[in-house]
Amino acid sequence: MYTYDQLSRWYELYQSAFYLFDADRLLGNYSRMRQAFAQRYPDVRIGYSYKTNYLPYLCYSLHEAGAYAEVVSGLEYELACKLGVAPQHIIFNGPLKREAELQEALQKGCIVNLDSWAELEMVINCARENPLRQINVGLRVNFQLDQDGKSPLQSGYEVSRFGFCVENGSYHMALQRLEGVANVSVVGLHGHFSANRSLSVYETITRTLCQLAVETLGDNLSYIDVGGGMYGPLPDTFQATDIPSYEDYAEVICSAMHEELRKLEKKPTLILEPGISLVADTFIFVCKVIDRKENRGKRFVLVDGSVHNIKPTMHPHNLPMQIISPDPRNGEAEYHVVGYTCMEKDYLLFGHKAPEPQIGDFLLFSHVGAYTIVFSPPFIKERPPIIATRKDEWLIARRKETIEAFFSDELYHFPSQPSGQEENAR
Ligand SMILES: Cc1ncc(COP(=O)(O)O)c(C=O)c1O
Q1: Which residues on adjacent β-strands are paired with residue 292?
Q2: Domain boundaries 4-19+282-406, CATH class
Q3: pLDDT tens digits, residue range 97-124?
Q4: DSSP three-state, residue 293
Q5: Residue with the nearest Cα to atom 5 of ligand 1?
Q6: Residue 85 · residue 50 · CB < 8 Å
Q7: Count of helices and strands (H, E) across the chain
Q8: Domain spanning 23-280, CATH architecture
């Protein structure tokens, strides 16, 4: 629980809205998830999905606790290397890996899951150029997940665009193509699906991956990667019921692993790639009330933050909000909380019913740890600073973006600089 004075001190530092990152909560989530799975399966690795929130301090805190890095681009891979993650602890996924990135990841011994024919050919080239090197890869697999004739994929998609399709023979063709190269082995299967996060989906994913692996990979099988996509703790405002816990997921996934792989003497590693479920509830966005007004019967509270800072995907749910004020605020009013951008749809809260905040109060929005700081480009204002708290201490995990960094002349052309053509001519 933060006091008005504490928040004011942080606000004074930058004269700006800011994020609070609770590192203790993150490590608590990680250790509860890890325990839930480790109690049920002998060899589990958790690869944190960088894309969800690649704040270096956050990633680093998880690595210190033992998490692997799950990356989907050269940029994320470089960050993992910069944070000192051992290549063997980096899982390189994603639909588009550049040849140089892929070659480096393979050479260093990362866990690489291939997603396309183009990547398959790159691996084959790499293997032919380095005939003495053994190259191990995983394949991302695509199969039907339908439940009662309905697709559980997010946004209602019928078919996922990722991976090699089992039903049309692509998966078997990919395997055959790689088996034709002596120094390449397929050692793992990857089955991340952005679906409805239900237990039954995980059961299908795990069983299908295990059955395929037993049928087709034989003794080469080293890991089964069921991806991310689980629920973490959810705010009450989402009014969601029957949300599975980490234990529920662990029970379903690990039981399926044990049953499907009972005949194997050497059990493969189980890999998970959680993002949202670890970080969503570890960030709070703190902004200040700047103004209040009424327009034709509707009350608006203007803050120095934006919907972009708390839910860049602009989903319709109001996130939990707490008012921290010098004096208690009582009564109940209905109002909208709106942001600093010039967009009509910049609503941080819509039709909120609660005591109305006063100018100078802080509004705290929680559950904003996933896909906020990575998804929101600096729009109209600089990126806000991030203050991390851990064991009653705090540090600045990201400073407020300066004008110089925002409009860096390493990135942009300014009139005082030679044009690109002149630079090339030199
Ligand atoms: C390959 C892969 N792994 C893991 C994740 C993490 O998913 P979530 O943040 O829902 O746990 C994603 C997200 O899209 C993904 O594409």
Answers
A1: 301
A2: mainly beta
A3: 999 999 999 999 999 999 999 999 999 9
A4: strand
A5: 228
A6: no
A7: 13, 18
A8: Alpha-Beta Barrel (3.20)
